[in-house]
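Figure 6 in text form: structure in, sequence out.
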């Protein structure tokens, strides 16, 4: 006869949540140079560029992130004569409505420097978008772990060459200063500091240069990281604007790249300036833990037909011997005694009337 033991929901079951993290390091040589751009995929629509960790036609290739650029219709750089003007404003508006949402009048909110989307303040109107693949970001980017470096040397450095002057962008306050007023969840403010070189920034401080949306896996970075102070950027005037250089080996200011180049060309320019990128992802592991309690007078006999031989228990030599069974499997059933899950023990567990056990079964999802 088969017997069942009831699980008390309050005493025998708990639900836990565990956060697992992986470190994701990415060097500029992978993004541009190592594979001679065979790992870069461009599309006929020309609205963004995809970056892979290996030539994208290979079965071993993994999608890393997408790059796009855009500007708000309110941007001073916005002009109908710009190259791919409609696509650049559409990209900005699309990303803004998904990541920032709408105001009370139904207008799309712009990316705000300090996250105060309902108030005034400065906006990020000319931006670069880095949309990270779910393969890397998993459930979310770990708060406070994001770091990205751009070379700001006025020289062509295609292929991830070492830049003498660099700007480092981090969400240094993300672990305790993140914001929650986004339709996609939580996001943090990205700040830029000088990481290499001298007199790169206009002052010795952090500058708000973007937003990082943790669950969405999207970094929105202002073009101010490549622009001098006199033009609204964060670079020292004496240092001058960065001359952006792409695979075409041409050099021009970022504002000229944003307005006069195609999105593909702008993505090439930005990608060739990426020196280093790293963050930790987060995997949320939810578990239901069941404590299967076996009393001393339970499960001392087996229902397996081989347990008997000529109507005698194989494990008993004389009638006064204690019965013995070996527990190898735990089954979880619903109220209709239908098997829902099976757990296997690493080795048989000897059970006699003078022993009791509590077997811990964990279901992860």
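Output sequence:
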């Amino acid at each position: 006869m088969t017997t069942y033991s009831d699980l008390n929901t309050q005493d025998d079951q708990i639900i836990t949540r565990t956060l697992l993290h992986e470190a994701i390091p990415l060097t500029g040589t992978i993004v541009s140079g190592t594979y001679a751009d065979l790992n870069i995929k461009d599309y006929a629509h020309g609205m963004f560029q995809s970056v892979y960790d290996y030539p994208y036609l290979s079965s071993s290739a993994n999608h890393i992130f997408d790059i796009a650029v855009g500007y708000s219709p309110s941007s001073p750089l916005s002009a109908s004569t710009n190259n791919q003007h409609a696509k650049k404003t559409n990209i900005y508006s699309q990303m803004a409505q998904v990541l920032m949402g709408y105001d009370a009048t139904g207008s799309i909110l712009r990316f705000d420097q300090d996250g105060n989307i309902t108030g005034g303040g400065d906006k990020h109107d000319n931006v670069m978008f880095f949309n990270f693949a779910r393969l890397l970001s998993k459930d979310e980017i770990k708060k406070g772990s994001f770091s990205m470096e751009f070379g700001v040397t006025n020289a062509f450095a295609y292929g991830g060459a070492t830049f003498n002057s660099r700007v480092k962008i981090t969400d240094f306050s993300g672990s305790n200063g993140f914001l929650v007023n986004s339709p996609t969840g939580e996001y943090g403010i990205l700040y830029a500091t000088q990481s290499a070189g001298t007199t790169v920034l206009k002052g010795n401080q952090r500058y708000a240069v973007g937003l990082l949306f943790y669950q969405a896996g999207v970094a929105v970075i202002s073009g101010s990281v490549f622009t001098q102070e006199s033009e609204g950027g964060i670079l020292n005037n004496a240092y001058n604007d960065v001359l952006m250089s792409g695979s075409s080996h041409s050099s021009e200011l970022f504002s000229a790249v944003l307005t006069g180049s195609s999105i593909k060309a702008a993505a090439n320019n930005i990608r060739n300036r990426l020196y280093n990128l790293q963050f930790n992802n987060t995997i949320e592991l939810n578990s239901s833990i069941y404590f299967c309690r076996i009393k001393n007078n339970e499960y001392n006999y087996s229902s397996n037909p081989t347990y008997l031989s000529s109507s005698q228990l194989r494990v008993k030599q004389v009638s006064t011997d204690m019965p013995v069974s070996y527990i190898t499997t735990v089954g979880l059933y619903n109220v209709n005694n239908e098997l829902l899950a099976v757990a296997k023990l690493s080795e048989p567990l000897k059970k006699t009337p003078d022993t009791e056990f509590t077997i811990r079964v964990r279901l992860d999802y």
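Caption detail: The chain has two domains: 18-284, 295-364.
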